Amino acid sequence: IMERKTHVKINRKEVMLAKLRKSCSCTPQKLKNFVMDFFPVLRWLPKYQCKEYIWGDIMSGLVIGIILVPQAIAYSLLAGLKPIYSLYTSFFANIIYFLMGTSRHVSVGIFSLISLMVGQVVDRELLLAGFDLNDDAPPALGDGSLQNDSLSNTTAFNLTIAGISAECGKECYAIGIATALTFVAGVYQVLMGIFRLGFVSMYLSESVLDGFATGASLTILTAQVKYLIGIKIPRSQGHGMLVITWINIFRNISQANLCDVITSAICIVVLVTAKELGDRYKHKLKFPLPTELVVIVVATLVSHYGKLNEVYASSVSGAIPTGFIPPAVPQFNLMLRVAVDALPLALVSFVFTVSLSEMFAKKYAYTIRANQEMFAVGFCNIIPSFFHSFATSAALAKTLVKTSTGCQTQVSGVISAMVVLLVLLFLAPLFYSLQKCVLACIIIVSLRGALRKFRDVPARYHMNKLDTLVWVITTSASALVSTEIGLLVGIVFSMLCIVVRTQRPRTALLGQIQDTGFYEDDLEYENLSTVPKVKIFRFEAPLYYANKNYFLKSLYRLTNLDPNLEAARRKKYEKKEKQHLQKGNHRTANGLGIGETTLQLVPKQIDFQALVVDCSSISFLDTTGVNTLKEILKDYKNLNISVLLACCNPSVIDSLKRGGYFERDFGSMQEMLFYSIHNAVLFAKDQK
């Protein structure tokens, strides 16, 4: 007999008051710990082992900085913003994460999915404001270098909307939307950190995240095709953007720019070949080949000296100003317009950052603080939003490169920021002649990893069909409807899958493994022996209101006995029998003698006298679950069949006690509750 421990009751009110007093107290040591926790760099930087770490950090920082520059310029196409703002984003994100992040290895900065989500919101708001989304449209008042250097397109925007000043044109309004969106997303992330809502990320399963990334990659690929072939089509907005864009592409395919098509073909061949060779011989290379940078430099030189823009009308990046634009506070009125859009952006940014941080922390045997990561990502959005930057996240590809090139700490992030700063201050104007089709090629080739997920579908399907269905639906919704709707659909559908799994779980009758005290599913295993006069039923899920009916139907089907129907049949038989006896007829309704009626009261199909319910897979019971077990206990008792529960966990036992399943003094527990199936079977065999 196992006896439960007596737990001391905790006064929750006193505990909460003690925690509140502790958190509200302020001592010099506590203030110091708070500052050190909020800025983890203060803990690890004084212990930095310069001789051991510095060369790896410098090498990885330089490589990531070289990769960041072309990616920043390219991803500006996704965000619908000028390249200078992507460079600002890369610079500030690395500096702030260096101060506040707890991961030593993740690379935080611009990320294709986040850039896409920002770009969709920017495009929508530009359309609502009356701007033309065509990249080559005449600049609005104040567009370009943020100076009032153009008088065209001044009426395309109602200058009183959202409180924007009269000097603000298309570019100014676009970055205003992006910074407002980024600020609100950062505030959401900080609030989630304050209220410790990091658990929300658990509802984004691996299948949902993979499906979301794959669907968004298809959207990114579609958005870049027009740059690849040099056609001018409007940027589609709203639901079904992917389908509408492809329709417009095929309608205007005859207008393709031959120069852009040839350039794109050459760049894609070079980039893909270099990537494949890099993957094949990565164990021999000390650091990855800077293929993107080489392609950009060569393409810029060819475009400049070949005058591809003037001669062949090839679209180029245009002027990229140097230096920093004076900081500005994000517009509050614009924040109200994008408050809803910022929520999925904040969630996706946080989930990708924390999941990558945890993955590399586990790989290199150190720990991170998920709550601090939320603060770090939040301030990587809040602070840069004052400096004309947009939303950031950790990126897997750059993080893998970072670790493969010897990164030891986030000092490498500072080195990367210095490389970007060098471009910002001196080198940015050199990219004036860079063709947009080259940037599109860099973006498309960077999607290889996400698009390769399609090759994993057969293996995924073989492993788990339901997870594959979640992936397919999330991918389809993200690509065909919109990224935000796709993420929502994926989360809801994956939750519904969990509900369905618990609503219709596996059920089985168990047989005994010969010459042992163990029992297993007799439909899954051979050579199991049935236990005479005992049925053993297993239900592989919690028993609660949503699966109560399925529990009863499965039990009645597998035992071939519905006690309610049997009780009704007996009552009906007894009623007919009494009617015959009252008439003085000594023959019953079936034509049998009175002495023979007892045999008819017990039907032939009842071949057991005890039912053992294996509760090992029942993790909890709600009120409906307890009442269901009480119901079968009563119904089977009317048929002289005892119900025995086996392998119940403590929480299930407590629910049964509170629900009145046992007698008030719990004296009957030893005859109703057993710690193993075998004990319950032995007890049932000994019953008369």
From TrEMBL:
Molecular function per GO: secondary active sulfate transmembrane transporter activity
Superkingdom of origin: Eukaryota
STAS domain ranges (all copies): 524-684
Keywords annotated in UniProt: Cell membrane, Glycoprotein, Membrane, Phosphoprotein, Transmembrane, Transmembrane helix, Transport
Subcellular location field: Apical cell membrane
Transmembrane spans: 53-75, 95-118, 172-191, 211-229, 334-354, 375-397, 417-447, 468-496
Name under which the protein is recorded: Sulfate transporter
